[in-house]
Amino acid sequence: MAAPPLPGPLAHLAPLLGHYGYWAVGAVVLVEDFGVPAPGETILLAAGVYAGAGRLNVVAVAAIAFVAAVVGDNIGYLIGRVGGRTLVHRWGRYVFLTPKRFEAAEEFFGRHGGKIVTVARFIEGLRQANGIIAGTTGMHWRRFLAYNALGAALWVGLWTTLAYLVGNHITTVYDEISRYQLYILAAAAALIAAFVVRHFVRRRRER
Description:
Blueprint: H1 14-20, H2 22-32, H3 40-52, H4 58-91, H5 99-120, H6 126-136, H7 141-166, H8 170-206
Helix pairs in contact: 1-2, 2-3, 2-4, 3-4, 3-7, 4-6, 4-7, 5-6, 5-7
């Protein structure tokens, strides 16, 4: 069966998917999830379109993407756990991340990190960095693994299913969802900022 033409921004992935199929999906999602700039979400959408056209098996695409996402984030977690703290203490002052502020961030992430790890999967930038941040701030690995797996399952399930069902209309649907995602991101950022301010005020009162 001939490969369907991929719409708009997905078109450049056609040669990669055509040549490597499932391997391309797994490799691109994996490297994106430990911080390497790669089109992980885009290739997941493209693979979903191919699955809808019968070129790939949708269950295999979802399973491979899920495993790659979890493994990639755990590599990021290991990077953060092993070298992140040293980098923060050495270079953090240049971006105004003092040891005191980092300690406060650690405590905040310890309390609310699970929610952040799950939601980060849907936010560009945070998706690539959340494993490293979790490792650097010392989040317990089992807790990270559970929330990370939940986020990966929701992320893979959403985009694979949508791309599979709507086919070449996926870019239109994706653009609409992304538009609302900006509002959700703004609300989440405001909520996190409120938690941080509340945390600092409480610590100051305790002292």
